[in-house]
Design goal:
Helices cover 37% and strands 15% of the residues. The chain has 251 residues and is an alpha/beta fold. Helix 2 packs antiparallel against helix 3, helix 5 packs parallel to helix 8 and helix 8 runs antiparallel to helix 9. The longest helix has 15 residues.
């Protein structure tokens, strides 16, 4: 029996020629907020990495692994039965330590000027970081309790992804880094995977293993330059030629 989500489905941009679907954590932001909270206040880096590996190996699904990570944050913050790692505490920690990529604002404005909707898809609720007016964020929700504890409320609890990012319109551009974007990776026409200097790039590994075409990028300025070539191509033949050049087959 499948579970039903109480979360209403978002606006979907039908009829648009180009749509950008982007991850938030570690893509638009300089660091993954969920990883930061889990590593700093929850189970810690080694256990989190082990759980992510189990997801990539198919031994676990993202929905259950991610829930374990967040539960560890709440449990590790209990002092004499009192919850200290409340959701507000975690939000403040994220806001004080993680910033938006300074190249994203210009990219967002470029998309707006060219009638390209930007939809941010996030695993958990970090809308407090969305400082850009009008940006749509589709995320899971969080349920809080009187004792200060909290838990994730998945948008698609019946899915092994918890938030199945493949549901909805297929975007021409997908920007991401995390394993929770595995469901959307195959549906993107042009998949950008953000380079991570620490080498922990689960989506890149998944794309290589499964031979999914993808293009690494280090800044939204770089991604914008490639997008310009595509959206301003004079013919469909030219556009497809650019896509084939920039997104070669994975060997």
């Amino acid at each position: 029996m499948s579970q039903e989500s109480h979360i209403t489905e978002p606006v979907i941009y039908h009829g648009k020629k180009f749509i950008v679907l982007s991850d938030w954590d570690g893509t638009i932001t300089t660091q993954d907020s969920n990883d930061f909270v889990t590593d700093t206040y929850g189970m810690g880096l080694p256990d989190r990495v082990a759980l992510n590996q189990s997801v990539r190996n198919g031994q676990d699904n993202f929905r259950d692994a991610f829930r374990k990570m967040l539960v560890s944050v709440v449990e590790n913050g209990k002092v004499e039965g009192k919850v200290t790692h409340t959701f507000e505490f975690c939000k403040n920690a994220v806001a004080n330590n993680i910033k938006v990529d300074d190249t994203f604002k210009a990219f967002y404005e470029f998309c707006g000027a060219n009638d390209i909707p930007v939809v941010v898809v996030s695993s958990v609720l970090h809308k407090h970081l969305a400082s850009l007016d009008g940006i749509q964020i589709i995320s899971n929700e969080v349920k809080t309790y009187d004792d200060g504890s909290w838990e994730i409320q998945y948008r698609h609890p019946e899915s092994g992804f918890g938030h199945d990012k493949s549901e909805g319109d297929r975007p021409i551009h997908e920007h991401a880094t995390r394993s929770d974007h595995l469901s959307a990776a195959r549906g993107a026409t042009c998949l950008f995977v953000k380079y991570k200097p620490n080498g922990e790039n689960e989506l890149m590994e998944y794309c290589i293993i499964n031979k999914i075409k993808h293009r690494l990028f280090q800044s939204f300025e770089e991604a914008q330059g490639v997008m310009k070539l595509i959206i301003f191509a004079e013919t469909e033949e030219e556009r497809q030629s650019i896509i084939a050049r920039e997104w070669p087959e994975v060997a």
